[in-house]
Write a structure and sequence with these properties.
By secondary structure, the protein is α/β, with parallel strands linked by helices. The mean pLDDT is 84. It has two domains: 163 residues, Flavodoxin domain (Rossmann fold, 3-Layer(aba) Sandwich); 64 residues, Alpha-Beta Plaits. The chain is globular, with a radius of gyration of 18 Å. It contains eight helices and 13 strands. The longest helix has 23 residues. Strand 6, helix 3 and strand 7 form a beta-alpha-beta unit. The strands form four sheets. The protein has a six-stranded parallel sheet, with helices on one face. Strands 9-12-13 form a three-stranded antiparallel sheet.
Length: 255
């Protein structure tokens, strides 16, 4: 029996988890949520798939892994998706949590969905190219995992994680300390909002409600931007001073 635990905002990590799960016998996919209870897992193979946020772990993933416990002496693999090739930084966190228990680790570069600050979502051309290459990478990873290959490809790019921790104002520490209040910066153009509820169903931590208009619950936001990216009329925007999604493209990979 195998389990893959995943967290995904706009679909990249979900696609990786789903495609890997299809290539592993007797594999169950389990979504990481904000309502995490400590459990003990004894499966022969366990996988963890998540995106890199601010050169580190999304807060919900960090919380899940801290509560994660495995009594299995089996195979543990971790796959981290990222939108830009130099976005590393999770190595230290994973080592602190798992020590040397990880059997296999690899980054996968996919279409970028983070378009706050000076970033913008990947163009359709870049998205299609990266996601096409991703399918080949997933196939190779699946072969290695099924053979129980041991590999930890952190790469020297994790230097970026070191830099952002040395200058926390610009990196992960700022994200992890302020992310739960970040949904206060989202706003809705009620003139073009259709009330389709896609933002509600797309939020991976159930942080949005619709009662005549869209409302954020101000408790579990991960700043994944799923609500912004999935909106069919582009009615949802994020603005925090000079940081904004206005005028930028959308990215969605739940297909």
């Amino acid at each position: 029996m195998a389990k893959i635990f995943y967290f995904s905002g706009t679909g990249n990590s979900y696609q990786v988890a789903k495609k890997l799960g299809m290539k592993i016998d007797d594999c169950e996919l389990i979504k990481m949520t904000h309502d995490i209870k400590k459990e003990v897992y004894k499966d022969d193979m366990i996988g963890i798939v998540f995106p890199v946020y601010y050169f580190g772990l999304p807060k919900v993933v960090d919380k899940f892994l801290i509560n994660f416990e495995s009594q299995s002496s089996g195979y543990l693999f971790v796959i981290a998706t990222r939108g830009i090739p130099f976005a590393g930084g999770v190595r230290k966190q994973l080592m602190n949590i798992f020590s040397n228990k990880i059997s296999y680790f690899q980054y996968i570069t996919m279409g970028d969905n983070f378009n706050i600050d000076f970033w913008n979502s990947s163009s359709n051309k870049v998205k299609e190219s990266r996601n096409s290459q991703c399918d080949d990478t997933i196939q190779k990873i699946a072969v290695s995992i099924n053979k129980r290959v041991h590999k930890k490809k952190y790469t020297l790019i994790d230097f970026m994680g070191f830099i952002t921790r040395r200058f926390p104002r610009y990196g992960y520490e700022t994200y992890i300390n302020k992310v739960y209040g970040s949904d206060e910066c989202f706003n809705v153009n009620t003139e073009i909002c259709t009330g389709c509820n896609k933002c509600v169903t797309s939020c991976p931590v159930d942080n949005i409600r619709f009662d005549k208009q869209v409302k954020w619950m101000h408790k579990d936001c991960q700043l994944c931007l799923a609500c912004y990216h999935c909106c069919p009329t582009n009615a949802i925007q994020y603005t925090n001073g000079h940081l904004t999604t206005i005028g930028k493209s959308q990215y969605w990979n739940y297909f």
